[in-house]
Amino acid sequence: MYRPEASVSILLVEDEETLAESIKYNLVREGYSVTLATDGHEALARARENVPELVILDLMLPGVGGLDILRRLRAESSVPIVIVTAKDTEADKVAGLELGADDYVTKPFSMRELVSRVRANLRRVQDWGVEEPDSDDLIVSGEIAMDVGRHEVRVAGHAVELRPKEFELLESLMRRRGRLVTRELLLDEVWGSPFFGDSKTLDVHIRRLRMKVERDPTHPERIVTIRGLGYKFVDGQ
Cβ(165)–Cβ(205) under 8 Å? Predict the structure, then answer.
C-alpha cells in the first residue's frame, strides 16, 4: 500500500463533528498528519501558522464561508485545495474551481474516494516540483514554449506561471498538437483513473489555461474545442 511521508500535513476544514472525525481517522490511518479547523476564522489562522501541504475544505461553514476561505487561501498560497461540499449543482462546482480549487468531492462520498483524491493531488504536486534528468525536453509551437524538465512555460518570451494540472493539460495537448485529444484521455492523464467527478472540472481548467496562453481567451486559436469530443492544440507559426 502506498504510504506518504509522515511529515505530509493536511488542513481539514469541516464543521460537522462526526464527519470531520471520520475523515481525520482515515487520513491518519494512511499516514498523514491532520489538523482540524471547524470554522473559517480558525482555518485561516491555522493555515497561516503552519502552511499545510494540502487543504480539504467544506464550503458550508459557519462565519466566513467556504468560498471566501478558498479565495483567501489561494491569494496567499498555491497549496492544493480539495473542496468537500453538499452543493452539487454545476454552478457551485464551477465557482469553486474558478476561484482556484484543484478538485472537489460531493457529499455523500466514500472515504476511499476522498483518500484517492488526496493522494493523487499530493503526488502530482510532488512530481511537478522535481526536475527530470532530461531538462532539455522542449516542446515549442509558435510563441509557446514548454521546458518539461524544468516545468517552465514561456509565451512570447515571457514566463507564465501554471498550476500543476494546467501544466499537465498543456503538455498533453502540445505533445499531440494538431490531433484531437478526447476528454476521457485528458481526464485520465491529468486527474488519474478512476476519475470520480464530472468533466466540468476539465472545462474550468481549460478555461483557466486559455487565460494564460491565448492572445484572446474568448476566441481561442491554440486550444480549440472539438464539440462533443475534446480539444485540439493548433500548431502555430
Answer: yes
Distance (Å) of CA 207 to CA 56, 109, 126, 132: 23, 27, 24, 28
Instruction: Report d(CA 88, CA 106) in Å as an integer.
Output: 6
Question: What phi-psi label fits residue 174: left (phi over 0), alpha (psi between -120 and 50 degrees) or beta?
Answer: alpha
Write the DSSP assignment of 154-193 as a string of letters: EETTEEE---HHHHHHHHHHHHTTTSEEEHHHHHHHHH-S
DSSP 120-133: HHHHHHHHHTSPPS
Q: Is 88 left (phi over 0), alpha (psi -120 to 50) or beta?
A: alpha
- pLDDT, greater one: 123 or 40: 40
All three cell numbers of 9: 500535513
Calpha distance 71→96 (Å, rounded): 9
Please tell me the pTM assigned to this model.
0.64
CA angle 124, 116, 23 (to 5 degrees): 120
pLDDT tens profile 28-41:
999 999 999 999 89
Q: What is the pLDDT of residues 6-19, one digit of tens each?
A: 578 999 999 999 99
**What are the tens digits of pLDDT across the range 47-92?**
999 889 999 999 888 888 888 999 888 888 888 999 988 866 667 7
